[in-house]
Specification:
Blueprint lengths: L1 H4 L2 E6 L3 H13 L5 E7 L5 H11 L6 E5 L2 H7 L7 E4 L6 H6 L3 E4 L18 E4 L17 E3 L2 H15 L10 E5 L9 H17 L3 E5 L8 H8 L6 E3 L15 E4 L4 H9 L3 E3 L12 H12 L4 H4 L7 H13 L8 H7 L9 H16 L1
Parallel strand pairs: 1-2, 1-4, 2-3, 4-5, 5-6, 6-7, 8-9, 8-11, 9-10, 11-12
Helix pairs in contact: 2-6, 13-14
Length: about 375
């Protein structure tokens, strides 16, 4: 009995969605008398961020909450052996640590976890993952490691508690609504390109009779957002969505979510049954955004219907749009069965390859995939 009463657990997150996932795991386990410590690792260390994470964490009786800016601070200051169980999101810089610990569980903070290579982590005690769209999982994970899924009903229950804590509402003042997810990476093609891209599809959906709610990426606030506010200041069908918390936890009444290569196009259909479509922007594959970004592009390309696939139903009801979305998703292989996509997501170049050769090999895989 004493061992159970003194069980010590450590949860390592980046805050926000990963923190809510940690709270979901705690609720799923329903273990009592545990002594839990929370660590939040984030470059964002401003007062408002820390205050927000602390309020979310107040839904559980953590004995201690610690904030670090970088993973190396965590490694330097924490004695992991003192904990009976360590729960951590997919930090690349902690991979060596994961491979040594025998009491470690990995959990996700969004659909991007699919590009994390877990094949070498044979000592893990288990995985807690979100089975996005009933398609996602860690790729070729060691068979001996137990996998548990983060329960969507428990997640939504925690989300409601968080919204109540912050006095946030999921009610929109309009009907027939589209959520447009912005992303700073579009500006890799130039600010003028990004501006024209946003305006083209805002105008398109307004013309179809939708109210367009634009959710800017934080890194877009200083450039794109002022332009859009000025352009549409007299158009009641365009609105800026300024929610304080992760959009996945709100139960907004959107008919559709749109964007290009965003994880939201996978997570919102999963959590909120909102159909999504991927707007055409293949030019991003040819920018210098880096290999991991392009892995994300391929992943979200695969599991988000394209604009061309969805455009024939955009003037229909929300249910009809959802039915068409579901029909398209049903034709997709599960991630672990998609051999070519797996090659791209797990691609790791030979250490002796030149930069040119690394890119050439990777682009060959991408070209084969896109053809």
């Amino acid at each position: 009995m004493e061992a159970i009463l003194n069980k010590k657990r450590l949860f390592i997150t980046t805050g926000l969605i990963s923190l809510i996932n940690a709270l979901t795991i705690i609720e799923q386990q329903s273990e009592e008398q545990c002594e839990d410590t929370l660590i939040v690792v984030s470059f964002n260390q401003n007062e408002e961020f820390i205050k927000t994470q602390t309020r979310i964490a107040s839904l559980h009786n953590f004995k201690q909450i610690i904030f670090y800016k970088k993973e190396k601070e965590l490694i330097k200051n924490i004695n992991f052996e003192q904990y009976n169980a360590v729960y951590c999101i997919t930090f690349y810089k902690l991979t060596k640590l994961f491979s040594k610990l025998t009491n470690c569980y990995i959990f996700d903070e969004g659909p991007g976890y699919a590009i994390f290579n877990v094949q070498r982590l044979k000592n893990l005690s288990g995985f807690y993952i979100t089975n996005f769209l009933e398609k996602f999982s860690f790729i070729d994970a060691p068979a001996q490691i137990p996998v548990k899924f983060i329960n969507i009903d428990v997640f939504n229950s925690i989300a409601e508690k968080v919204l109540k804590e912050f006095g946030e509402s999921s009610i929109l003042p309009t009907s027939r609504n589209v959520l447009f997810i912005g992303h700073y990476v579009y500006r890799k093609l130039g600010d003028d390109f990004a501006e024209a891209f946003y305006k083209k599809y805002i105008d398109y959906f307004i013309a179809l009779g939708y109210n367009v709610y634009f959710k800017a990426h934080p890194r877009d606030n200083d450039v794109i957002l002022p332009i859009l506010k000025e352009t549409y200041k007299n158009n009641p069908s365009f609105k800026i969505l300024e929610n304080k918390l992760p959009i996945e936890i709100y139960n907004y009444d959107f008919d559709l979510v749109i964007g290009a290569y965003s994880g939201m196009l996978v997570s919102l259909p999963h959590y909120r049954k909102i159909p999504s479509l991927n707007l055409p922007m293949k030019e991003l594959y040819h920018t210098d955004v880096g290999m991991n970004f392009k892995k994300f592009f391929a992943l979200y390309d695969e599991y988000t219907p394209s604009f061309d696939e969805m455009k024939f139903v955009l003037d229909k009801s929300k249910q009809e749009i959802w039915n068409h979305y579901e029909h398209i998703l049903q034709t997709k292989e599960k991630l672990n069965d998609n051999k070519l996509l797996k090659q791209i997501l797990l691609y790791k170049s030979n250490v002796f390859d030149t930069v040119f050769l690394k890119r050439r090999k990777f682009y060959k895989l991408l070209k084969n995939y896109m053809s």
